[in-house]
Write a structure and sequence with these properties.
Blueprint lengths: L15 E7 L6 H14 L4 E7 L6 H9 L5 E5 L6 H11 L4 E4 L8 H12 L4 E5 L6 E3 L3 H18 L11 E4 H6 L10 H11 L4 E5 L1 E3 L10 H21 L18 H8 L1
Parallel strand pairs: 1-2, 1-4, 2-3, 5-8, 6-9
Antiparallel strand pairs: 4-7, 5-7
């Protein structure tokens, strides 16, 4: 599966929603939101920042409520249901009001400047924009060696199984139009395996996509929540579930663009042409 060409018939977007799941991120959540909001304001990107507190036991929620007084674009919410990265992101997606969405990490590992580029790329006429740290122009800083090796192996397996060129599927930091998110429901992944469910479904269901380089740096505060040993079988389950859809669903879930309506002829024009 190769990236698509932009579709100029897709409508221009009105508001970008950035969804940030956060659990025990008191050391970085304020700077993440402040830097993101500043960057988007500098580039005149209409936006809202939806931060989902996923059961924090530290001051994350109180810091968010205080920050809301200074940043009106901030919309902090609590995930009151079962916890988990995927559940928190889905909670944020359900509460977001924008017509396009970016999923971003709370620890400032993702670059705010890339969010601006996502907005522009979507407006070129794509349903999805997938960032990659491993193409020309992208990069990683202080990536733990073991995690990097596991990451490259997992992405290689996905590329082979799905026959596509995207080489950074497992990274959550991606952008989607609203109709993509709605078109990929219902979601199954409650944990970090959600990071592959949404992009893989988007591709398999026929939404247009492209890639762009992004940068990533390891967190400077707090503790990483992803535990590789706990997630292997969960990633495999979601990967195979979408793979089965790709090859055995006979296109039952594919996205079909609505036909462009031709403007109805003006009766007065028809009368004059018939004279």
């Amino acid at each position: 599966m190769k990236p698509h060409q932009p579709d100029p018939t897709l409508p221009k977007l009105n508001c970008l929603s950035i969804v940030i799941p956060a659990r025990d991120e008191q050391g970085c959540i304020v700077s993440t939101v402040e830097h993101l909001n500043l960057e988007l304001n500098l580039h005149h990107v209409p936006h809202e920042i939806v931060v989902v507190d996923d059961g924090s036991s530290d001051r994350t929620w109180s810091l968010l409520t205080e920050l809301k007084e200074k940043i009106p674009q901030l919309s902090p919410i609590k995930n009151t249901g079962e916890h988990g990265f995927g559940r928190a992101v889905q909670c944020g997606l359900n509460h977001a009001t924008g017509d396009c969405l970016v999923v971003m990490m709370a620890d400032e590992s993702d670059d705010c400047r890339d969010v601006v580029q996502y907005w522009h790329k979507l407006n070129e006429g794509y349903h999805c924009v997938f960032g990659s740290r491993f193409i020309k122009g992208g990069g990683v800083i202080d990536y733990p060696v073991i995690k990097l090796m596991v990451n490259r192996f997992a992405n290689f397996v996905i590329r082979v199984l799905f026959r596509m060129k995207l080489n950074d599927t497992t990274n959550a930091f991606k952008a989607y139009r609203r109709e993509v998110v709605e078109g990929c429901k219902p979601f199954l992944a409650p944990h970090f395996n959600f990071t592959i469910e949404l992009p893989l479904k988007s591709v398999v269901r026929g939404f247009s996509w492209t890639t762009m380089p992004i940068t990533w740096r390891n967190r400077r505060t707090g503790i990483a929540k992803l535990k590789i040993r706990e997630m292997g079988s969960r990633y495999f389950f979601i990967m195979m579930y979408v793979w089965l859809e790709k090859y055995f669903s006979r296109g039952d879930y594919e996205h079909h663009p609505e036909p462009v309506q031709e403007p109805s002829p003006d009766p007065k024009t028809e009368e004059k042409s018939g004279e």
